[in-house]
C-alpha cells in the first residue's frame, strides 16, 4: 500500500493525527519521546486507501536515539508523501527538520501547523499563507485534539498525492548523501554498549554532528550545514510569527515557575504527596466502602452457595471456594486489592502525563538524577514504570546512550514497583500502620539510589547531558484524557487478568494438593531460618514468578507481624520482574541481560531480606 509518513519534531501532536486518521489508538502524552516505535494504519482519502505511518519525533536527520533512527529510516525508505506536523508554539524548533527534509529529500509534503489553540493562548500568531509560500507546499492550521483543520488537511493531501510523481520519491538526494558521506554518517543509531560514542551517527571528534539540546530546549548542532538549517529556521520563524506584547497567561506563568527550584521544588513535593495521597486514600476508600462489601457479602457467598449445592466436600470444592479457592481469591486479590488502586493511579498519572508536568519534574531533578548516573529526562520512564515496567523499558529507546538505557532498565527492574504490586503493598502495610508503609517507601528509595550508584560503576559508557524540551503546560483535553484512561484500564484488565488468574489457579492447586506444605518443609531453612517468615510464605516466591503483585498477596493470608510484613515487602520489591518484563528484557536487550537481571534481583531479594531479618532480630533482642 502507498505510504504516507507523519513526521515532525517530538511532542508536536503526530500521534493524535494518527489516531484520528486511522482509528487506531496510539498513546499521545505531553512529553517528547512518547512514541518510540512505528505504527502503521489504513487511512482513506477519497476512494483510495493509504498506509499512514506514525514514527517517533526527531529534530534532525541524524539519529540521537534508537527511537529517532526509526523515523529517519522511514524518510529514507521513500514514502509517497509526508504530513509534516509543525508546532505553532515552537515554530523555530519544528522548522529545522522541515527545512532539512524540503532541501534534501524530494518528498511531496503537506504541513499541519498544529497547537494553534495554545499559540493563541500565548499571543502567537503565524502568517500561514506566507509560511506556505516559503515552504512551497500547503500549510493548514490545526488543533489536533479537536480535529480542527483535519478535513482541509486531508483534501489538500489528496490533491498533493494526485500531483505527486508516479515513481516513489527519491530516498535521499545527492546533497544529503554527500553531506552524510562527508562526516561518515548515515543517520543510523549505533547501539554499541562498549563505546562512548555508542549513540551518535558520528563521533564528536569527527567533522561530525553533535546534537545538544539545552534545558530551555535550545538546540545546538556543530555541523556547518546544520547551523545553517537552524539559522534558516530561526529566520523563517521570525518572519512569519507575530507575538503580542501581552503578559503571559496564568498557565504559562505557572509552567515557567514549575521548572525553577523556587517555587518548583515545593510544588513538586506537593504534587508527589498529593498524587500519592489521592491514590492511597481513594483506593483504600473504594476498597473499603464499595469493593470489599461487594465481594464479601455478595460475590463470594454466591459462588460458595452455588458450588456447595452440587459439588461434594473435598479437594475439588476447596480448589473452587476453599481458603485459597479460585472463586474466593481471584475476587479478593484481583478485584479487591489491585483494580481499585490501578484505576485511581491511572486517573492521576494520565493527568500528569497530559498536562506536561513530567518533563518539568525531570528538569527539577536533573542534578540529583545526574549524581545517580542518569539524566533527569529518564525520570519520565522511571515514573512510567509505576504504571507498568514493560512500556517503561520500551520507552528507554528514546535514551541517547546505551548506558542510559541499561541504567534506567536496571533501576526499574530492581526498585520500582508497578502499581499492581504497589497496591498490594499499600493494602498490606497500611493494615498495620502508616509507619510501616512509610518505612517500605523509604527503603524503596534507598534501594533505588543504591542500585543506581552501583550500576553506574558497573556499566561502561557515558550518559549525555539533559536532552529535554519542556512542553507547554496544558489542561488535558477532556475527551482525549478519558479515552486514554479507558483504553489503559481496559488494556490492563485484558493483559493482566490472564496471568493473575493463572497465579490464583497455581495457588489453589499448590495448597489443596499438599505441594505447598511439602515445599514449606523443604524450603524451611530459607523461609523460616533465613527470612524469618512462615514456611507457607514460599507461595509468594512461587507466584511472584508469574506477576509482581503476586509476590506480596499470599503474605496477606499469613497473619504476619509488622516486622515480617516489612521483610516480605522488601523481598517482593527486589524480587523477580514478572514474566512479561523478562520477555521484554530479552527482546529489547538480549537473553543474557534478561537472565542476568532475573538472577541478580532474586539473589539480592533473598540476601537483603535475610540480612534485615537477622539484623532486626538482633536489635530487638537488645531492646
Ligand atoms: N492543546 C492542544 N494539545 C495538543 C494538540 N495536538 C496535540 N496535543 C497534545 O500534545 C501532546 C503531544 O501529542 P503527541 O501526539 O503525543 O505528540 P507526538 O508528536 O506524537 O510526540 P512524540 O511521539 O513524542 O514525538 C499530547 O498531550 C496531545 O494531547 C493541539 O492541537 N492542541
Ligand atoms: Mg507520538
From TrEMBL:
Q: Name one GO cellular component term.
A: plasma membrane
> What Gene3D superfamilies is this protein classified in?
P-loop containing nucleotide triphosphate hydrolases (3.40.50.300)
Mind telling me which residue stretches traverse the membrane in this protein?
Answer: 267-286, 298-321, 333-352, 372-394, 406-428, 434-455, 492-510, 522-546, 597-622
Give residue ranges for domain FeoB-type G. 1-163
- Any Pfam family from its record, for instance, is FeoB_N
Please list the residues that bind Mg(2+) 1: 22
Locate the residues binding GTP.
Answer: 8-15, 54-57, 114-117
Q: Which CDD domains match?
A: FeoB (cd01879)
Where, subcellularly, is it found?
Answer: Cell membrane
User: Recorded GO terms, molecular function?
Assistant: ferrous iron transmembrane transporter activity; GTP binding; metal ion binding
Q: How does it sit in the membrane?
A: Multi-pass membrane protein
Q: Span of the secretion signal?
A: none
Annotated residues that bind Mg(2+) 2 are located at: 20, 23
PANTHER family recorded? FE(2+) TRANSPORTER FEOB, FERROUS IRON TRANSPORT PROTEIN B
What name does this protein carry?
Answer: Ferrous iron transport protein B
Which source organism? Methanimicrococcus hongohii
